[in-house]
Amino acid sequence: MPPSAAFEEHPKCELTDNRRRIVGPSSGGWSAATTVRLGGGDATVAFELVKKGRNACFGVLRPGADRDGWLGDQQGGVGLHTFGDFWVDGSEKRSDLPSISEGSRVVLEWRGGAQTLAWVVDGKRVLEHQGDFAGYHIAVGGSDYYDNTTIQLAKASSLSLPPLPPPPQAPPPKKTIPQEELVVSATEYISVMMVDSRGEACAFCFTCSGCKHEWSGMGSKRPQTLTCPRCHLTARTR
Fold first, then answer.
1. Three-state DSSP state, 156
2. What is the pLDDT of residues 152-176, one digit of tens each?
3. DSSP conformation letters of 165-226
4. CB 151 within 8 A of CB 139
5. Phi and psi dihedrals of 73, rounded to 5?
């Protein structure tokens, strides 16, 4: 986590511990950004959920987005909620994720090169989401009706993240073997039948012993080796 990470001021919330702890209001929704802005590099911020309230949220918020609703309920907001639901730009995308309890550690990880957000809850990666979030701020939020949601920025020294899985690798391109390097099969063959010898060149009918493909050709003499145009078997003729 960047050493300067802190919560930005919010009219509904109380900030303490040098703006490293935020306490939400006793009623109404809210979203509050941190000073960590996403860009082309990587960023990681860890939070401790001190008091959940009715519903706490963790995600990102675009500058200028509405801060009077829970995180993800507004355009420009993305939030994973303690109920186990996931919201993006006012639309619920998931409702089957694990719930988050008081005392949990929630880590948000941004990989700028892959444009991927990851949520790690108590050491377990529970969600990844891709999007162009350059310029957004890592943020938290809540929807309080019972108690004041309280979230603390965790110390970087206590942070231990499992790495993101490597991106899938494209299969290596198939090597094209030059015709002259093909190995002639010792057990398979291509049969040759002369069907016409009246002209200057003879007409032949060829049959591959491997795939049974038949084709015809012309030549002044019977070929010694051939390559099947269908299965590409190279073999001696019979």
1. helix
2. 998 643 344 455 555 566 666 655 5
3. PPPPPPPPPPPPPPGGGPPPEEEEEEEEEEEE-SSSSEEEEEEETTT--EEEEEESS--SEE
4. no
5. -80, -15
Structure tokens at 151: 């979230």
Tell me how far apart the alpha carbons of residues 199 and 204 are, in angstroms, rounded to a whole number. 12
Decide if 139 contacts 128 (C-beta within 8 A): no
**pLDDT tens digits along 44-53:** 999 999 998 8
Q: Domain 14-158: which topology?
A: Jelly Rolls (2.60.120)
The token duo for 3 is: 């050493």
Where along the chain do the CATH 2.60.120.920 domains lie? 14-158
Burial class (CB in 10 A: 0-12, 13-18, 19+), 40: exposed
Token pair in block for residue 135:
């310029």
233 CB contacts (<8 Å, ≥6 apart)?
185, 188, 190, 208, 209, 210, 211, 227
Q: pTM for the whole thing?
A: 0.65
Average pLDDT over residues 96-107: 94
Residue 189 identity: Y
Residues in Cβ contact with 4 at an 8 Å cutoff, skipping those fewer than 6 apart = 35
